[in-house]
């Protein structure tokens, strides 16, 4: 496999601004994996523009200390000024002291790590005893993986090569890092938008795609299953979720 990118595709910030609730199922599923409590210290792995951190901040009504690991300035400049931005590589968080964090979360960022075991071990290191680590990510050889490593890779100026997860793989990474109480599931978390035009506009912006909205609208059903509901379109989106605890 070609070398992985160490950052997400650079998105158009208007994508999430215009469609802030499209990925709610994916986000809320992750936030429910680990206990978030007022005043907790949370690390967001590969924070990008802050989608996950914003969800945590909203859930805790701002009563949280958020540390966002995002080495790409084009992305971390979008982060809320209340968050602490760390530009460390996601394989080595030298800016974060050991045993100081309550929860580590990662939303679809682990596949960008050049050394996933190192990333998981860093989560273990920075957590306090009893702290939780929870991630979700793309399933290897799935429609979502094919979309990202084929279409997005071909049509985003920076490409996209991710090392996605096979079932059981993240549990093994957690086990080897000495985490306990490991739970892993595969969850359906569809992205929901008003109609096919909005789906194409959202995907174009979110993934920084060069083709026209009309072209993206035509090709999306080749890669992903779009289900027409009475008042919306659901884009089938399935991810691996895993949570573990530091003893």
Detailed description of the structure:
- With 247 residues, the chain is α/β, with parallel strands linked by helices.
- It is 32% helix and 23% strand.
- Helix 4 links the parallel strand 2 and strand 3 (84-86).
- Helix 8 (196-206) packs across helix 9 (213-223).
- The radius of gyration is 17 Å and the shape is globular.
- Mean pLDDT is 95; it is low at 1-5.
Strand content: 15-25%
- Oligomeric description of these chains: single chain
**How many individual helices?**
9
Helix content: 25-40%
> How would a crystallographer describe the biggest sheet?
7 strands, mixed
Kindly report how far apart the N and C termini lie: 35 Å
Structural class designation: alpha/beta
Global Rg: 17 Å
Mean pLDDT: 95
Low-pLDDT stretches are: 1-5
Shape: globular
Please list the strands of the largest sheet in the order they lie side by side.
3-2-1-4-5-10-6
Please specify the SSE layout and strand pairing:
Blueprint: H1 14-18, H2 24-31, E1 41-45, H3 51-59, E2 65-69, H4 73-76, E3 84-86, E4 101-107, H5 116-126, E5 127-138, H6 143-155, H7 169-176, E6 180-188, E7 191-193, H8 196-206, H9 213-223, E8 226-228, E9 233-235, E10 238-245
Parallel strand pairs: 1-2, 1-4, 2-3, 4-5
Antiparallel strand pairs: 5-10, 6-10, 7-9, 8-9
Helix pairs in contact: 8-9
């Amino acid at each position: 496999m070609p070398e992985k990118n160490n950052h997400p595709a650079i998105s158009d910030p208007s994508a999430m601004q215009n469609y802030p609730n499209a990925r709610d199922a994916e986000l809320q599923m992750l936030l429910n994996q680990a206990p978030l409590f007022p005043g907790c210290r949370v690390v967001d792995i590969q924070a990008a523009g802050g989608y996950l951190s914003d969800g945590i901040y909203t859930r805790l009504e701002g009563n949280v200390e958020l540390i966002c690991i995002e080495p790409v300035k084009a992305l971390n400049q979008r982060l809320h000024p209340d968050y602490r931005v760390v530009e460390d590589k996601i394989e080595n968080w030298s800016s974060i002291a050991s045993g100081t964090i309550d929860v580590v979360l990662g939303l679809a960022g682990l596949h960008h790590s050049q050394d996933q075991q190192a990333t998981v071990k860093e989560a273990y290191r920075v957590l306090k005893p009893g702290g939780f680590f929870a991630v979700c990510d793309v399933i290897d050889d799935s429609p979502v993986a094919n979309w990202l490593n084929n279409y997005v890779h071909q049509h985003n100026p920076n490409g996209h090569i991710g090392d996605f997860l096979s079932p059981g793989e993240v549990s093994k990474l957690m086990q080897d890092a000495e985490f306990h109480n490991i739970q892993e599931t595969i969850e359906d978390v569809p992205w929901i938008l008003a109609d096919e035009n909005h789906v194409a506009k959202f995907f174009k912006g979110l993934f920084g795609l060069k083709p026209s909205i009309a072209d993206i609208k035509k090709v999306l059903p080749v890669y992903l299953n779009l289900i027409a509901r009475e008042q919306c379109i659901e884009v089938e989106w399935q991810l691996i979720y895993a949570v573990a605890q530091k003893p």
